[in-house]
Write a structure and sequence with these properties.
Protein name: Fungal-type protein kinase domain-containing protein
Mean pLDDT: 85
Structural class: alpha+beta
Shape: globular
Radius of gyration: 19 Å
Low-confidence stretches: none
Number of strands: 7
Largest sheet: 5 strands, mixed
């Protein structure tokens, strides 16, 4: 099977994914059993002076910021930077996705600094998630049979429990805006979720992938059954 980073269209069809988009103003946390967490997050962020300053800087196209968000704004502007006239480069973002990846994780870390939750940590280390067909007989074990079809998906970071390292959220970053590579991103995110579910099965039927494509951030809720 193809790598989880570049799954084939045939492989993607085998995942049996139905993808729908939800505009930000139509998002309803109740659809994902997040109403209490969403309300709590709103209250915490509304009361955070540094976060509100960060939002003001974005709205006013300013370079400044307060507290943990000051360097985040600078990193965002690096992603948005354009190349000098007459050059072939697309600016810093045209080099690779490193600034996108760093900006997303640093932003999420900054948000976490103003919350009381310390049970989970955002990690830069990439997780290698492997899906085997048929599935492994031992949870989390390495492949025992080289003839079993499999693929490996690699994350761009993740939110993990501080002690058990249990993955709660997976991160995926691309240097371009989503519309430039939408199909590729859709297939790669689906492969990550499939590998995550196959390697670490649980009774939960919802997994979350946070993506940054260029300067755009998306939250993907993957819901599934045993079919």
């Amino acid at each position: 099977m193809e790598s989880g980073s570049k799954p084939s269209q045939g492989q993607f069809l085998l995942f049996r994914v139905i993808r729908t988009a939800c505009p930000r103003d139509e998002f309803n946390p109740r659809d994902f059993n997040l109403q209490s967490q969403f309300s709590q997050a709103q209250e915490i962020l509304d009361e955070s002076e540094s976060f509100q300053s960060f939002l003001d800087a974005i709205e006013e196209n300013d370079e400044s910021g307060l507290g943990f968000f000051a360097p985040i704004r600078e990193q965002q502007l690096e992603i948005l930077a354009k190349a000098p006239t007459g050059t072939r480069s697309e600016g810093p973002i045209g080099v690779d996705e490193s600034p996108v990846n760093a900006t997303l994780i640093n932003f999420l870390k900054a948000v976490q600094e103003i919350t009381p939750d310390r049970d989970y940590k955002w990690r830069y280390s990439k997780a290698h998630l492997t899906a085997e067909f048929p599935p492994k007989t031992q949870h989390g074990a390495k492949r025992a049979n080289p003839d079993v079809p499999y693929f490996t998906a690699i994350t761009d970071g993740q939110l993990q429990h501080a002690d058990s390292y249990r993955i709660k959220i997976v991160l995926e970053c691309k240097r371009y805006r989503r519309r430039k590579c939408a199909l590729q991103v859709d297939m790669q995110e689906a492969a990550q979720v499939v590998a995550w579910v196959k390697q670490y099965p649980s009774n939960e039927r919802q997994r979350v992938v946070v993506s940054q494509n260029g300067e755009e951030i998306y939250i993907n809720f993957a819901q599934y059954d045993d079919a």
